[in-house]
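Researcher: Predict the fold of 3-oxoacyl-[acyl-carrier-protein] synthase 2.
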Amino acid sequence: MACFVEIDLHIHYLGGLRLTRVVITGLGTVSPLGNSLTETWESAINGRSGIGPLTRFDCEHFSAKTAAEVKDFQLANYMKVNERHRVDRFAAYAMAASIMALDDANIQIGKDVEAERIGVWFGTAIGGIESFEESHMNLLEGGYTNLYPFATTTVICNMASSQVSIAIGARGVNNCTVLSCASGANAIGESYRAIQRGEADIMIAGGSEASITPLGVGAFCAMGAISTNPDPQKACRPFDKNRDGLVMGEGAGAIILESYESAVKRNAHVYGEIIGYATVGDAYHITSPAPFGEGGVRSMQLAVQYANIEKTSIDYINAHGTSTVYNDKSETAAIKTFFKELASQIPISSTKSMTGHMMGAAGATEAIFSLMAIKTGIIPPTINLENPDPDCDLDYVPNRSRKKRVQTVLSNAFGFGGHNTTLIFQSVKD
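Model: Structure tokens for 3-oxoacyl-[acyl-carrier-protein] synthase 2 follow.
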């Protein structure tokens, strides 16, 4: 495979195509750990869990009793009162995270960037499932005349990117990724490419999910993939031999990607640079990863080649780390296969141990954790790792955050259907 070769400080080339460097200038998040970047990051580095009793619905007859819910979220802070009934929670979370990220980047559309040169690309695994369930109940109770006029537009997956675009006036690239739990990471990667191709100067990218509903949770219960641990704080335990499944989470993560030239021109604060992205398929099974994490190996390999760096450059890996037997062992095997003798030397952590599995929002939120690790020199921990699985024997930064100079981070996101996405972020080198 041809890889990017750095020609000068600002431009890369691939097959003669001129490609622009892309940096990250803003971050925003709504998560089980907090409704802002500061709250979320402080909770993460202090090893605080966002998991608690499931309260969104009566779960008496469900095997799952715990969830990582967003708490005390106020949509009124981000949307007019008379418009709030038109959006599902997954789109509302996306709007809030995007507005926070745009504010963090200090971007004014029309002043710092033309509306036609700023785009939106959001991912989700499921979309407006809460609105779907509500509409179905209304239909059963009173027929189609009992349906709300916006029953369709609250459900469809593109409403996160659409509502963000409408809310802020972004008139450029507008797209939606649906790649199961790799959706948010993929949206970031595709936004990166959109800027490199010259289609936009700035992109708002991320992922959003709000699937803690009877159908959403019930489906995972039926699959046997969800934790039944009665202690919410201990329920999610990636790489631990006593893990018994994932914990469903919700929320949104949004990042502002910007061409290097645009960021320099407006003297923007920069969190880091995105230098690598790859996405590949297993072509194996709809829920189980390929043997030995073969797809994850190729995803990491291609992302590193794309970034034109050596494997020795990776200072930290933010793992997909779902707290399921198949994923944890498969991802560990993939890291060992790709990094070989280096694997045991690289700190790895699963922040899902604190956020739960935020599904389509997971990859985006974990990209934010990756960038904050670069900025602060603090690696968030994998909490609840008390009895490591013998097959998971790498350095997972157990239970306590770690101070370390971090210049380059690799972040994995994998999803049902055999999707494997890897992002690589790096501190900016002038």
